Amino acid sequence: MYTRIITFMNNLKLRTKLFLSFGSVVLIPVLIVGVFLTSELRNMAMNNALKQITANVDRVKKRTSEMLNVPVDIVYRLSNDSRLEEAANHRYESVYDVVQAYWDYPDFRDFVRLYKEVSSIRLYIDNPTVLNNWEFLQADEAVTREPWYQLALAQKGLAFWSYIPDSRNGQYYLSLIRKVDFLKQRTTGVLVVNVNSDQLSSILKQETFETFIVDENDNVVASNRAGTLGKSLQEINLKPLSTLAGHGPADITIEGQSFKMLIDDWHPEGSLNSLRIISIFSVESIVSEPNRIISLATSVIISSLFLAIILIYYFSRLLTGRMLHLSKHISKVASGNLEARLVIDGKDEIGQLARQFNHMVRNVNDLMSEVQESNQQKNAILLKQNEIKFKMMASQINPHFLFNALESIRMKAHTRGQTDIAQVVRLLGKMMRKNLEVGGGRITLQSELETVNCYLVIQKFRYNDRLAYELYVDPAANTVRIPPLIIQPLVENCVIHGLENRMDGGMVRVDIRVEEALLKVQVSDNGTGISPARLAELRQMLDNNDDYETHSIGMRNIHLRLKLTYGPEYGLVLASQSGYGTQISFAIPFKE
């Protein structure tokens, strides 16, 4: 049996084997795990919601109890207040006496002011001499017919909660009602304390689920759902809740939708009747997120299966295609094409075989081209030798011979009294020696200015009065180190072009200052200037990266050296105006 299975598997195509292995190893376990996790996710979401709704009801019950204890305490204190008995039962002879008595008894107002849980307090009494001031009220016929009033008289000093309108504005409040017996006067009154509705609703607004506080008549006395305060359960489509007794979480159906709800029949301390705290949530709102995750997971699984099928098909073609490609390449090499290269990526056996085959073909090809490379090397060596010979012939002039010759000329001129010629020759030799000694490092600004001074003295000797020059150097800049030969070529440029076409000569000025952590150098002349077209051409030449010959090669060389040394934001700046001269300037970081 085992042998038949092995034979059957060996006869299958590689593509079919990949499909079977994927289905047995990946697809079935993924489906089992997906169904299990989906069920657990829904159960966890529902259990968390039930725990939260239970905690919400307990929290609301605790905070509401703390709030309702305040009216209970007030009613107890007022019921035993002898001053209230005197103020309510005294027979007043004038309006002034009534008003004065009200001012002498501010307890109702003080309680409202001190306790934010209470919005108003009023006492209904049967005393024709009192005036209605919304605190002390006559118990007229309309009031005495109210069910809450009759219930209060029927009780023996027990308080109860009722949702009744306020006589002042007709607005409904959850009120604590109690009959007050005035023993000395042998009279009775009904004390009503209104609870602050906004304060009571603010407790519920902090809860995440819909929560209501309902009285015995199914009136909503507090809610965190907008527009439900003061309405009955039937008016807000929650009539099914009115028939349910207080118990733990239960399933209900409202208008065809499933809900989870929790009702807590709560008997406030010191009260004859009870209130109900109701909290509900839609099952759909709780399971919507798990359902979304399930839908997303299903889409991902289906997409993954589809992608897996494509990848299996692609990998099967890739394996057979690489083998076929290797076979065709071997045929090309066998026909004598040693330049062909086999490109097969990967580090598997096929990739390793391809790399070994390429290595073998490359060795054969290297052996065949070795003779050609040796001939090319011989020709290259011969060209190098000729180039070296040419450079040696060009550099046969000995600089020491040149300096000695200049020194001989200087001495002859000096002995014959030609001191000016001797001075010029000495400066020329000094200037040439400095130029020959320039390396790739940096020199001090003072050394560079010595070269500039030598050049200007020589040119002054040549042009006599046609050339005038000025040098201004900030003393703080003498120790700055700069690249060599970046000022002298600029001075040379101004001398040549400053004196051009000016028979009366010209002025060259070198100005070097230290400002704002920058070394600023400006070389200017008062020559004929540069036309706008030529100035634009020169600026374009400075920023051109192509290597070509130009008579402004000196300025371009300086411009490129400044950019390479200090950065692309540095370089030469040209300014000129026809008939007024030219200025060439640059600024570099000041570092001693």
Automatic annotation (TrEMBL):
EC numbers on record: 2.7.13.3
Give the highest taxon in the source lineage: Bacteria
Keyword Membrane among record annotations: yes
What CDD domains would the database entry show? HAMP
Q: Which residues form the HAMP domain?
A: 317-369
Q: Which InterPro entries match?
A: Bact_2-comp_sensor_kinase (IPR050640), HAMP_dom (IPR003660), HATPase_C_sf (IPR036890), HATPase_dom (IPR003594), Sig_transdc_His_kin_internal (IPR010559)
Tell me the compartments it is located in: Cell membrane
Topology in membrane:
Multi-pass membrane protein
A Pfam match? His_kinase
Question: What UniProt keywords are attached to this protein's entry?
Answer: Cell membrane, Kinase, Membrane, Phosphoprotein, Transferase, Transmembrane, Transmembrane helix
State a single Gene Ontology molecular function.
protein histidine kinase activity
* Transmembrane intervals: 18-37, 293-315
- What is the name of this protein? Sensor histidine kinase
What is the source species?
Paenibacillus rhizoplanae
